[in-house]
Specification:
With 272 residues, the protein is α/β, with parallel strands linked by helices. It has helices at residues 6-15, 17-27, 33-51, 82-89, 123-139, 165-173, 183-194, 218-223, 238-247, 260-271, and strands spanning 63-68, 75-76, 100-116, 144-149, 153-157, 199-207, 228-233, 250-254.
């Protein structure tokens, strides 16, 4: 069946990287097992190399901070939560959103990457998602999560579960499109994943045109994020821009998979 010349692939990456990455992404779904496995291996290597561009080393020291309640975040701050606790003593149910905790925040940045797979999912869009995954994995391989969303919200990589970067990228490359877009569900899932981290900075990166087609308050979910960056296709970003403006997120535009590492690096530096 078909074959891949690795030297030709490397040459194509120099001349037409977006086209080559899109082709490799498609070939990871080839029916010929030998071709499929070779495409996965080449795609993984190239995407990890590309994703490492702009990687930053964590710096700083940890500190105790007050933060919203979550079971993993730390001990409840009695003073900051006194009103909610007092109400419970009068027979009212405690609202967890009104509780505060004191917890240790580590230096560095934790990430949750949200990948919109609601539209056509193949070629360059699929490659863009995979390279974005490689970029995030290279920045903090021990504290990141990846969530794919369309009709359903699927955690591809959990925040606190170790998984090799190669395996995560290969799992992303198996994603195919689903017609509807549960944007609110994806943002809520990101909040849940990042609540498991004690990093000093917790960033959600959303790759999407932000056309929500499933019921849910995406804006309310976005307002609950500590930091949100929206990355949208350069040729189709009007709704993403409007959504980012409404929720106070930073917007960045991407034209192809080879651009995504620099786009992520610039957006993170600009919003720091």
């Amino acid at each position: 069946m078909g074959e891949l010349d690795e030297y030709a692939v490397d040459e194509a990456m120099q001349n037409s990287p977006d086209e080559m990455l899109g082709l490799l992404a498609d070939l990871t779904g080839a029916t010929d097992p030998k071709l499929r496995e070779l495409a996965k291996r080449l795609a993984g290597r190239l995407m990890l190399d590309l994703g490492a561009r702009g990687r930053a080393k964590p710096r700083g020291i940890g500190k105790m901070v007050e933060q919203p309640y979550s079971p993993e975040a730390g001990d409840i701050d009695i003073d900051a939560s006194l009103e909610a606790i007092s109400e419970s003593r009068r027979g009212q149910a405690i609202d967890p959103d009104r509780l505060r905790v004191r917890g240790w925040r580590k230096p560095g940045t934790a990430f949750c990457l949200l990948l919109d797979r609601s539209g056509s999912m193949g070629g360059q869009p699929l490659a863009t998602n995979a390279v974005a995954t490689a970029s995030i994995a290279s920045r903090n391989p021990e504290d990141y999560s990846v969530i794919a969303f369309g009709k359903d919200v699927v955690v591809t990589k959990s925040q606190d579960v170790p998984k090799s970067s190669e395996r995560v990228i290969n799992d992303v490359l198996t994603l195919r499109g689903h017609g509807t877009t549960d944007l609110a569900g994806a943002l809520l899932a990101a909040r849940s994943q990042l609540s498991r981290s004690r990093a000093g900075r917790r960033v959600t990166i959303l790759l999407s045109d932000c056309r929500a087609t499933v019921e849910g308050d995406a804006e309310a979910a976005a307002h609950g994020m500590e930091e949100l960056i929206v990355i949208a296709p350069r040729e189709d970003h009007d709704e993403a821009r409007a959504f980012a403006n409404r929720v106070g997120a930073r917007l960045a535009l991407v034209g192809g998979p080879s651009e995504i590492p620099e786009v992520i690096a610039f957006a993170l530096e600009a919003s720091a």
